[in-house]
UniProtKB/TrEMBL annotation:
Its EC number is 3.5.4.2. It comes from Methanospirillum hungatei. The keyword Manganese applies. This is Adenine deaminase. GO terms for molecular function: adenine deaminase activity. The lineage of its organism: Archaea, Methanobacteriati, Methanobacteriota, Stenosarchaea group, Methanomicrobia. One of its GO terms (biological process) is adenine catabolic process. Residues 395-541 form the Adenine deaminase C-terminal domain. Its cofactor is Mn(2+). InterPro entries: Adenine_deam (IPR006679), Adenine_deam_C (IPR026912), Amidohydro-rel (IPR006680). HAMAP family: Adenine_deamin.
């Protein structure tokens, strides 16, 4: 026996290991020393043995793209929750907290990377503000991002949402792209020569694909495809047929934006695996997409497989198709509740929250004619532009499900935008939230101006919250950390969301209405949005009047 063979700390015996290199399951023991796999197969001995009792063993799951802030949890509570589901690494873009807190927000996430078991790898926010017309605490230029590039846990540049800036090769955009060789893209509905041009600037991946033909083109042109399954952005059913033995190395799962309640009830990357298998994907390809594929995309050659020299991150499951995780190991040690220390007092202070409560006059709509109405698409964050003949006196129009939407700036109190939305389903009451991608202004919708103003007032009072009300009934989930995240345990946040959703359901709303609401001001996803400046047409990248001067032409 060699010195190498006898030097293990722990031998894990009687496991059925998933090998993502060959996509097969192997009955092999494996050995760990100092948190690293030192080998598989017979011939190893160690100080300790763990009998896996013929359970299936997978490398730790990796989320290829996520905004932790969208869970409504602190990174510490997020880690405590997702690690129960076999996740050991997430690739996070902290652009939500960076929009609100600037570089201090990035520091906060990097600190969280160091102080709990989950590996939070960071892709630096490339678009803060999201576009030149958006509001934020501070514009993050290449000069401000550069000092982070060599920090532990930083992988590269996060999703480049400024597609017009890329295509026109704006100098400020190009300065960011040259900071690193790992660059995530953001290219909804981009195809043909424009997609070629986008890729040629160095953008390598996309998680905004919602159409199968678009996903196929992006794979054919060499992009990495992140198949997203979030609370409202559910693209797995559409895109999973693109996965085969050849393409699986270029495909990964991501959750992007998934609220705490979905994490509790459905899971994390384990949920993506189950759904993919349920849609007909070969189990081995689904597990590869959750492990080695994202590791190789981000050049994380120290993880993603149970093989010599890699970090000993893995999870134990009892059924390949159901992917029920009953134990997660980080650095070769079982993850236990006591490994998650309560977060110390965070360093974030004095984030901007200058929003005011609007008056009835400031949110009043006047006019008659053809109105531009934002139409929600269930299961997507993309919207459609609808052109509907109406009078402002008819708002709200509950029969046609047309409601007023109000956006109040958290940065500049005088900026208040108003528009119309269709598809939320409210027949009574109102909703408001300080989570509104990516600027995170207050966004509200309701069936009367008084209720809209009351809901906004409650958000302002808490300096950040999710609020639902219906008559005298009110439910509020305070978001005490930057108006984005709750500092409560995830169990409490889950209960708070259940209470809110119970009320919104009683008001007639669609499922997960707050997640849909949170994207209605996002000016980088087609087609129509509402910002603090009013209605915004993403296709022409311009603010437009609520009422059109003439009917929409039939051929457009």
């Amino acid at each position: 026996m060699t010195r190498w063979e006898e030097s293990a700390d722990i031998i894990f015996k009687n496991g059925i290991i998933f090998n993502p290199y060959t996509c097969e399951w192997l009955n092999e023991d494996f050995a760990v020393r100092n948190g690293i796999f030192i080998g598989t197969g017979p011939g190893y001995s160690g100080k300790e043995e763990v009998d896996l009792k013929s359970s299936y063993v997978c490398p730790g799951f990796i989320d290829a793209h996520v905004h932790i802030e969208s869970s409504l949890l602190t990174p510490y509570e997020y880690a405590r929750l997702v690690m129960q589901h076999g996740t050991t690494t997430v690739v996070a873009d902290p652009h939500e907290i960076a929009n609100v807190c600037g570089t201090a927000g990035i520091e906060y996430i990097l600190q969280a990377h160091e102080n709990q078991p989950l590996d939070i790898m960071v892709m630096l926010p490339s678009c803060v503000a999201a576009t030149p017309i958006d509001e934020c605490a501070i514009t993050l230029t290449a000069d401000l991002l550069l000092p982070f590039m060599n920090r532990d846990g930083v992988l590269g540049l996060g999703e480049m949402m400024n597609v017009p800036g890329v295509l026109s090769e704006e100098p400020l955009v190009m300065e960011k792209l040259i900071l690193t060789s790992i660059r995530d893209g953001h290219a909804p509905f981009l195809t043909g020569t424009l997609l070629d041009q986008y890729i040629a600037t160095g953008l390598q991946s996309d998680h905004e694909t919602t159409v199968k033909s678009e996903g196929k083109e992006k794979l054919q042109k060499g992009m990495f495809l992140f198949i997203r399954e979030g609370s409202t952005e559910r693209n797995l059913h559409t895109l999973i047929p693109l996965v085969n033995a050849c393409s699986s190395s270029r495909c990964s799962f991501c959750t992007d934006d998934r609220h705490a309640d979905m994490l509790v009830t459905s899971g994390h990357i384990d949920d993506c695996i189950r759904k993919a298998i349920g849609e007909g994907c070969e189990p081995e390809l689904a597990y590869r997409m959750a492990t080695l594929s994202p590791a190789e995309r981000f050049r994380l050659y120290d993880r993603g497989a149970i093989s010599a020299g890699r970090i000993a991150d893995f999870c134990v499951i009892d059924d390949i198709k159901k992917c029920n995780v009953h134990a997660t190991y980080k650095n070769g040690r079982l993850v236990l509740p006591e490994h998650f220390r309560k977060e110390k007092t965070h360093t974030l202070k004095n984030w901007p929250f200058h929003a005011k409560i609007p008056s009835p006059e400031e949110i009043r709509i006047t006019g008659t004619g053809t109105a531009r109405v934002v139409k929600i698409q269930e299961g997507q964050i993309g919207t459609k532009a609808e052109y509907i003949q109406l009078s402002s006196d008819e708002i709200p129009d509950l029969k046609r499900d047309i409601l007023k939407i109000v956006v109040v700036s958290r940065y500049y109190p005088e900026n208040i935008g108003v528009g119309l939305v269709r598809g939320l389903g409210l027949t009574s009451g109102a909703m408001a939230s300080s989570v509104s991608h990516d600027s995170h202004n207050i966004i509200a919708v309701g069936t009367s101006d008084n209720e809209i103003i009351s809901a906004i007032a409650m958000v302002v009072k808490n300096k950040g919250a999710m609020v639902a009300l219906n008559g005298k009934e009110e439910v509020c989930l305070p978001l005490s950390l930057a108006g984005l995240m709750s500092e409560l345990p995830y169990e409490n946040v889950h209960k708070g969301l259940e209470s809110i959703h119970h009320l919104t359901k009683a008001c007639g709303a669609i499922k997960d209405p707050f997640m849909y609401l949170s994207f209605l001001a996002l000016s980088v996803i087609p087609e129509l949005r509402v910002t603090t400046k009013g209605v915004f047409d993403v296709n022409i990248f311009s603010n437009v009047p609520l009422f059109m001067d003439e009917e929409k032409p039939a051929d457009t």
